[in-house]
Amino acid sequence: MDLRGSIEMYLNKVFRCALHQRSRTLASLNFQGKRASQIRHSTTSTVDADGVSFEPNRNFVTKLEFLEPKIEDAIPIYRVFDNAGKVIDPSQDPQFSDDTLIRMYHAMKTLNIMDQVMYDAQRQGRVSFYMTNYGEEGCHIGSAAALDDQDLVFGQYREAGVLMWRGFKLEEFMDQCYANLNDPAAGKQMPVHYGSRKLNFVTISSPLATQMPQASGAAYALKRTHPGLCVICYFGEGAASEGDAHAAFNFAATLNAPCLFFCRNNGYAISTPVGDQYKGDGIAARGPGYGMLTIRVDGNDTLAVYNATSKARQIAVAENRPVLIEAMTYRVGHHSTSDDSSAYRSVDEVDYWSRTDDPIARFFRYMVNERKCWSEVQDKAFTKDSRKKIMTAFKNAEKRNKPSPSLMFTDVYKEIPPHLQQQQKEMIDHVRAHKDHYPLDRHEPI
Ligand SMILES: Cc1ncc(C[n+]2csc(CCOP(=O)(O)OP(=O)(O)O)c2C)c(N)n1
Ligand SMILES: [Mg+2]
């Protein structure tokens, strides 16, 4: 049975098992006459000689004092190199081989060029929608490089670099964005809603945070079926305001699920800046509240992201526990092609971040100045070659026919239910009757 099959089977089992466990617990607690607040704890702790199974915190004090959040107590940000690409503490340098560094750099750069091409393509009306990853390339490649290829990825929508690192081909990106006949979803998804069963990347669904409880459940299932593997769940700081984020954190923590929660804190949720999104110390501050191991990392420092994710992964699978990583970065691009960010932030602000804290430029400086394994000349040649490959994939995807319109009704249900069969027939009759009004020559036969 493949990974997905076993996860589905175990999710079924888990839910049944959890319900059964819960009713048994309730029955026994009713019998002992305990309070409802004790129910949660009774399944995990042992019963002492007095029959008491709930052990509360007994850290009493007599000083009347409120916890005051202070800026100087903010969770620090872990870094390996500075903005100039200079390693701050040599013991933290992961000492990658030149080949690995170059591979990481190639991936970040290729993602960046692909974004430029696809953004322009949308502006020219050639694809309907696009989302760039500008400024967040270090989060993607640093974290993806730290994972096992069998680890299951739940993305939000701005993690194309993770998929690229795993081997998703340029044409696969383009085929999905063009919704052509090679798109596995046959055009049912919006552009950038990628997925790959082969690469263990669960298909994007952009209603915010829906991937998060699914990730916790999948991590719990993996713990039981595939020990040694984990789940990584990417989400934005805006998505973290959804109730689903809470459910996900709490389930993963209480079920001891090996799930890496990777928050890309890029400063904005469309037009909502973080100052309006939360009042506390970002997303990392919430981790301890759920009993989760937590770290805040410089998301534009690819090596720091790598170290943090690598260590988090090691702990998650060895100790079966979730880890929260908050990567501090900046969304350089507009939210999507449907957005114009100059309406809510200054061009100077964007300019400042691009100039002073660009993950690709920082990595470049590290490679050139510290490791001496890359040069301006190599960079120019690579950029030219990469653009050429992207343009070839782009043109091929654009040329390919669109899927048959009938496929609009398939793949959602295992068998198409009668009311959808009826709609499918009506659609086909309609299109055939008015074929002059539809570009059927660009589609596979109906
Ligand atoms: C449940 C839900 N509410 C609202 C939206 C509309 N929406 C799409 S993206 C987005 C902002 C999300 O911001 P964040 O999680 O920080 O991710 P980022 O876009 O910054 O990567 C919103 C509000 C949605 N997709 N789903
Ligand atoms: Mg955001």
Automatic annotation (TrEMBL):
Location within or outside the cell: Mitochondrion matrix
Top EC class, one word: oxidoreductase
Keyword check for Mitochondrion: yes
Segments forming domain Dehydrogenase E1 component: 107-405
Cellular component, GO, one term: mitochondrial matrix
Example GO BP: branched-chain amino acid catabolic process
Molecular-function GO terms, alphabetical: branched-chain 2-oxo acid dehydrogenase activity; metal ion binding
A Pfam cross-reference name: E1_dh
Gene3D superfamilies documented for this protein: 3.40.50.970
Key words of the record: Metal-binding, Mitochondrion, Oxidoreductase, Potassium, Thiamine pyrophosphate, Transit peptide
Superkingdom classification of source: Eukaryota
Catalytic activity: N(6)-[(R)-lipoyl]-L-lysyl-[protein] + 3-methyl-2-oxobutanoate + H(+) = N(6)-[(R)-S(8)-2-methylpropanoyldihydrolipoyl]-L-lysyl-[protein] + CO2
InterPro entries: Alpha-ketoacid_DH_E1_comp, DH_E1, THDP-binding
Enzyme Commission code(s) on record: 1.2.4.4
Keyword Cytoplasm in annotation: no
The protein's required cofactors: thiamine diphosphate
Self-association state and partner proteins as the record states: Heterotetramer of 2 alpha/BCKDHA and 2 beta chains/BCKDHB that forms the branched-chain alpha-keto acid decarboxylase (E1) component of the BCKD complex. The branched-chain alpha-ketoacid dehydrogenase is a large complex composed of three major building blocks E1, E2 and E3. It is organized around E2, a 24-meric cubic core composed of DBT, to which are associated 6 to 12 copies of E1, and approximately 6 copies of the dehydrogenase E3, a DLD dimer. Interacts with PPM1K.
Similarity annotation: Belongs to the BCKDHA family.
Family annotation (PANTHER family): 2-OXOISOVALERATE DEHYDROGENASE SUBUNIT ALPHA, MITOCHONDRIAL (PTHR43380)
Function per UniProt: The branched-chain alpha-keto dehydrogenase complex catalyzes the overall conversion of alpha-keto acids to acyl-CoA and CO(2). It contains multiple copies of three enzymatic components: branched-chain alpha-keto acid decarboxylase (E1), lipoamide acyltransferase (E2) and lipoamide dehydrogenase (E3). Together with BCKDHB forms the heterotetrameric E1 subunit of the mitochondrial branched-chain alpha-ketoacid dehydrogenase (BCKD) complex. The BCKD complex catalyzes the multi-step oxidative decarboxylation of alpha-ketoacids derived from the branched-chain amino-acids valine, leucine and isoleucine producing CO2 and acyl-CoA which is subsequently utilized to produce energy. The E1 subunit catalyzes the first step with the decarboxylation of the alpha-ketoacid forming an enzyme-product intermediate.
Record-given protein name: 2-oxoisovalerate dehydrogenase subunit alpha
Species this chain originates from: Phallusia mammillata
Gene: Bckdha
